[in-house]
Design brief:
With about 290 residues, the chain is of the alpha/beta class. It has twelve helices and eleven strands. The chain has helices at about 5-20, 25-35, 40-45, 55-65, 70-75, 100-105, 125-135, 150-160, 195-200, 205, 220-235, 250-260; strands spanning about 5, 50, 80, 85, 115-120, 140-145, 165-170, 185-190, 235-245, 260-270, 275-280. The protein has a seven-stranded mixed beta sheet with strand order 7-6-5-8-9-11-10, with helices on both faces. It has a two-stranded antiparallel sheet with strand order 1-2. Helix 7 (about 125-135) links the parallel strand 5 and strand 6. The protein is elongated, with a radius of gyration of 21 Å. The structure holds glutamine.
Length: about 290
């Protein structure tokens, strides 16, 4: 018996509901779109289009994976962030909406005409760096990562978005080898989950995200201890930094940046109103 787009969608939704997946309606729609090549609009306007046996088999495979709690973005291999679409390979953290808080801090500091150089430490898929470069046509940026997979994914995303001329990528350990005072803005979403908390995370994260992108050591703060002085070192005087934090890390991370000599240190909340970013400046010369 042939299956229509609408039947495929409702069947998929029922399977995900039965598997107690959090957002069965959206997830099933995204998986049907990916498996059939139909757009969201087509599912609505052409609901009786027949789904081929091949597409049906692909969809079944996707649903099996989602039932095993693989995130949709991992299954379909892409995720929207800010105004850009990113490919996400297995080696990178799937970009989160929470991380857009960093853009809320950085973009107002530079208008569209500004020429500035930015650094994204632990660039992953390239989400933060590329979303900012896409908004600021005269900016250039460097992304570093300790994962070669991530560098490959980020580079590929830069090329797909036509940003390769303004984005470079470097495999390595944080700021290793970088000269002092090289950047106008430094951003990072480092791994910040305390080691013992990782086990209790939902399966989508625990089983399907790269551990190297999550593990912040004993108390989750290991990387900020390294990053605070290093970010202040590679920033130009007067430069801006913004780092993502866990919801309960504002005080500790603020203290680390203040101890490293940062000025105007402030905490910014995400849309869920949880503390999400610590931002500040490197004091200008003469202050
Ligand atoms: N916010 C991510 C999560 O909840 C963690 C990201 C990170 O450690 N930088 O899984």
């Amino acid at each position: 018996m042939s299956l229509t787009l609408l039947q495929a969608w409702t069947g998929a939704r029922d399977r995900l509901k039965a598997a107690q997946i959090d957002s069965p309606v959206i997830d099933s729609r995204l998986l049907v779109e990916a498996a059939t090549g139909a757009s969201r609009l087509e599912i609505a306007t052409d609901p009786y289009r027949v789904v081929s046996d091949e597409q049906r088999a692909v969809l079944d495979g996707y649903l099996d994976r989602r039932e095993r709690r693989e995130p949709v973005a991992r299954i379909i291999g892409r995720k929207g962030f800010w105004k850009i679409m990113l490919n996400v390979g297995p080696g990178v953290l799937i970009p989160r909406a929470d991380t857009e808080t960093i853009l809320d801090v950085v973009l107002p500091a530079f208008d569209e005409q500004s020429r500035f150089q930015m650094l994204d430490l632990g660039v992953g898929s390239g989400a933060i760096l590329l979303a900012i470069l896409a908004e600021r046509p005269h900016a250039t940026g460097l992304g570093t990562d300790i994962s070669e997979d991530a560098i490959a994914v980020a580079r590929d995303n830069a090329a797909r978005l036509g940003l390769e001329a303004r984005a470079s990528f470097l495999y390595g350990d944080w700021t290793q080898g970088m000269a002092d005072a090289s950047f106008d803005v430094v951003v990072s979403n480092p791994p910040y989950i305390a080691r013992e908390v990782i086990e209790g995370l939902e399966p989508e994260v625990r089983l399907h995200e790269p551990m190297v992108a999550l593990n912040g050591g004993e108390d989750g703060l290991d990387h900020y201890r390294t990053l605070a002085p290093e970010i202040l070192r590679v920033l130009r005087p007067g430069g801006l930094f913004a780092v993502e934090i866990g919801y309960d890390q504002a005080e500790a991370v603020t203290a680390l940046f203040e101890a490293a000599g940062a000025g105007d240190v402030r905490v910014v909340k995400d849309l869920g109103t949880r503390d999400r970013v610590v931002a500040g400046t490197k004091k200008p010369l003469g202050n």
